Amino acid sequence: MKKLIDMIAEELMQAFEANGYEGKYGMVTLSNRPDLCQYQCNGALAAAKSYKKAPIMIADEVIASVKDSKSFEKIEAILPGFINLTLNTGYIAKYLNEMSREEQYGCEKSAAPKTIVIDYGGPNVAKPLHVGHLRSAVIGESIKRISRFLGHNVIGDVHLGDWGLQMGLIIMELKKRHPDLVYFDENYTGEYPKEAPFTISELEEIYPAANEYSKAHPEFKEEAKNATYMLQNGTRGYAALWNHILNVSVTDLKKNYDNLNVSFDLWKKESDAQTYIPDMIAYLKENNYTRISEGALVVDVKEETDTKEIPPCMILKSDGATLYNTTDLATMVERMKLFHPDAITSIVDKRQELYFETVFRCAKKTKLVGEKVKLTFLGFGTMNGKDGKPFKTRDGGVMRLENLIQGINDEVYKKIMENREMPEEEAKSISRKVGLAALKYGDLSNQASKDYIFDIDRFISFEGNTGPYILYTIVRIKSILNKYREISGGDLNSKGTIVSSTLPGEISLMLEVSKFNDVVEHSYEENAPHKICQYIYDIANAFNSFYHENKIIAQEDKVKQRSWISLITLIQGILETCIYLLGFDAPDRM
After folding, report:
1. Within 388-466, where are the H helices?
2. Rounded Cα distance, 99 and 557, in Å
C-alpha cells in the first residue's frame, strides 16, 4: 500500500510535468506550519532557478492543474512560492479504511528482502548482565523486529565473550580454591562430571576475586596466561571447565534476557571464530595486505581523504598473539561463510567507533567481506544517572540488570496498588508489563547515539512521553471497545467504515494514524526506533484529546459512533503493532 505522502506527491509531480517542469519538483513534506496546512511543497522555489521564472507563477500553474482533485480540501500558493496543502477528510478516511483492511495495516514487506546479521548483546561469560548491557539488547531487539516486519531475513547474534585471559583467571582461581578437582589431574583419562563444580552465584564471584588477586600477584597472572594458552590448545580438563562455565553462564543469561523480552537466534561465541584465524592470516599475508610494524602484523586502512588519524588494524601482536581485531575479523569471515549476509550491523557503545571503523575498513580492503555487503556500526550513548554520570548503584557500584528491572517493577507495583484494588498476582503481572514498557520506552524514545538520563520517577509516570502513558492509552481504548460490545452487542471483527469528519481533533488523529507505514520504513532505513516512539506518542496525545472532547459510548448518531469505533479499533491495532516492534506488550487493564 502506497504511503499517503507519496500519493499526494504523485499528484503534485504530475501537475509539475503537465506544466512543462520536471516531476521531481513535486516532492511533498509534512507542513512546518500545521496551523496553516497539513502538507507543503516547496518545489516551485527550486524550479524557479532552473526555469528562470518567478516561483509564485510556477506555483499558481501547478495549483490550477489540481484544482479539481478530490484529494484536497484546500490548496493555495503563498509568496514567494510555497504550495500549502490541506487534504479532504473523505480522502483521509478512505485511506484509513484501506489501511484497516490491509495486512500489516498497509506496511508492505520489502520486494528485495535482505539477509542481515545483527550483533547485539556482547555479554561476557561468568559475569552478570549489568546496566551497561541494557542499551545494546533493547536497541538491537527493536531493530531486529522492525527489519523482520518489513520482510527481511534477520539473524540476531548475542556474540558471547568467552575467550581470552578471563578464562585463565577463572580456571586458576578454581585451582587455588579446589586443587583436588579432577580437572586439574593431568593423568585423568575418564569422563568429566556433567554437573559444574560451581553455581552461577559462585562463578560470578570467582572472576572479580581472581582479577583482583592477579593485580597484586604477578605470578598468578602468569599462571592464568598459561592456563589460557593451554585451554586454547585443547587441554582436556581446562576445556571441560570452560564448557561448564559456558553452560552455567548461558542458562543464566537466557533467563535475564527473557526478562527483557529479548531473544537471539545465535549464541555464537568469540571462540567459534578461532578456527578461521589461521587461514585468514595466511590469506592476508599471501595477498600482500599486511606489513610488519614494530614486530606486529598490521593492515594499513588509512585513506588519502581522511582528515583524522586512522591507525593500522593490528592482526597479530609482536609476540604472535591474536587480538580482538583478529577475532572480530574472523567472526566476519565466519558470518560470510555461514549466512552470506547482505549487511552486518554491530550495536555497540559509541566510544568504540574508531575501533569498528578500523576493523570494518580492514574487512573491506582485504575483501574478507564482499564489496556490496553493508557494514554498519550503530554506536549508542550512555545511560546516565541524574548527576549526568554513568548510572550507578547508591553505593557507587555497577548495577546488575536484574536488580534494575526488579526495582522498576516494584515501583510500578506500588503505584498500581496505591490507585486501585486488585489481586496481588494480577498486580504483579501488570507491573512486570508496565515496568518493561517503562524501561524499554525510556531508552528507545531517545536517539540511539545520544546519552540520556535514567529517571525512574519519570519513566514510570502514567503521564507524558513514557511507556506507561502509551500502555494506558491502549488500555483505555480496550475499555471503550469492551463497553461498546456490552451495550450494542457490536461485532468488532466486522470492519466498519471510517467516515469524513469536520472535527479538528478527529482530523488530527486521522492524520497521525495515516503515517504508520512511512514511520516504520524510515525507522528501518535509519535504524531509529525512536521514530516509532515519537509516532505512538503523537497518536496517544491526539487520541486522548479526541477522547476528552467526545462522548464515544454516549454518541447518539450511530453512523458517527460506528465510525469512531472503527477508527479506534484501527488505532489499537497500530499501537499494539508498534509496541511489539519496540519489544513490549500491553496488559488488559491498569
Report:
1. 401-419, 424-444, 456-459
2. 24
pLDDT band at 495 (very low <50, low <70, confident <90, very high): low
**E strand or H helix at 482, and its extent?**
helix 467-488
Q: Give the residues across from 155 on adjacent strands.
A: 117
> How far is 516 from 504, CA to CA, in rounded Å?
20
Backbone torsion region of residue 422, taken as left when φ is above 0, otherwise alpha when ψ lies between -120 and 50, otherwise beta: beta
Structural domains in the chain, CATH included, are 4-87 (3.30.1360.70), 165-259 (no CATH), 401-582 (1.10.730.10)
Q: Residue 295: what are its φ and ψ, rounded to 5°?
A: 90, -15
Cβ contacts of residue 2 below 8 Å, gap of 6+? none
Given a contact cutoff of 8 angstroms between Cβ atoms, the answer to whether 336 and 368 are in contact is yes
Q: Would you give the DSSP letter of residue 400? A: B
Asked whether the beta carbons of 49 and 37 are under 8 A apart, the reply is: no
3-state secondary structure of 62: helix
Task: List Cα–Cα distances, 275 to 245, 246, 330, in angstroms.
Answer: 20, 18, 8
Torsion of Cα atoms, 366 then 371 then 374 then 380, to 10°: 30
pLDDT tens, residue by residue, 201-243: 899 899 999 999 999 999 999 999 999 999 988 899 999 999 9
Whether the ω angle into residue 80 lies within 30 degrees of 0, i.e. cis, is: yes
Cell 506544466 belongs to 19
How far are the Cα atoms of 438, 534, 539 from residue 442, in angstroms, in the given order? 6, 12, 17
Closest CA to 444 of 470, 425, 420: 470
Q: What is the pTM of this model?
A: 0.94
Distances (CA, A) of 419 to 1, 427, 433, 589: 43, 11, 17, 13
At 146-168, the pLDDT tens digits run: 999 999 999 999 999 998 889 99
